Amino acid sequence: MKVFLDTNVLTSALATRGLCHELFITVISEHQLITSNDVLIELERILKRKIKLPGKIIDNFVLLISEEAIIVSSKYELNDIPDPDDAPIIAAAIEAYAAYFVTGDKELLKLKQVNKLPIISPRNFWNALVQEATN
Asked: Which residue of 6, 41, 90, 114 is most buried, as measured by CB atoms within 10 A?
């Protein structure tokens, strides 16, 4: 399954050892991670400025994602997204035919879906994976 993990999920995957970390490992090992250059740029910025991780750790994490993920650039324009900075990221997920867009962003979660792309929280995505595994 193709899964697009938003920047906040990837940030938490590296910065903590909780649910987002487990999701990242599961997606990398059992599914197909989808991302975009916009996410990688934003991820580097957040890890450097907000989380204040060492450059080598950031570089290695971004390299891992770059090697494991399908990186999509989208020419598709979305106008109904509350934050215009999120529009190209969601458009990339749609263009890649991602099964899910996983995010912790409350404004995006309120949308529930865009162009039939489900927008889902990390917890709900984890629950969907567990349910799928038990069926």
From this structure: 90
